[in-house]
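Thread title: Can someone regenerate the structure for this chain?

I was given the following input by a collaborator and told the matching structure tokens would be attached. They weren't. Posting the sequence so someone can regenerate them.
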Amino acid sequence: DGPRTLVQHVKNTALCLKRLSAVAKEGGQLEEFEEATDRAVRATTALLEFVADSGSNQDVSMVKAISAKAIVGSKKLYAHRYASDEERAAYAAQLDKLLAGSATVLKQLVQSDLQQSSRS
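Best answer:
Regenerated them for you:
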């Protein structure tokens, strides 16, 4: 059974993006990376659908943009798994910034939802 609340969707998405990042940094097996990518895409899609149902287009756009960037950043890092340590470190630093940005957006989404809930 999947997530039922915004907080559960956000946590699931954050965990999937974090896992994808970890697999990309490890540069492990392609199957593992593909599975982590698939999970991140599914979690993000479920979150986007959940947010879209609650009617906030701005939130949908923000989540879509930041999640897509984190997924693409992970793919770039994984694609350069045989590059020099220096090059990989640059891609990893870029990915860390994207993940920090996604964490901020996801936290704002939850805070905004909590504020709206407390007003009603």
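Residues 85-119 form the longest helix (35 residues).
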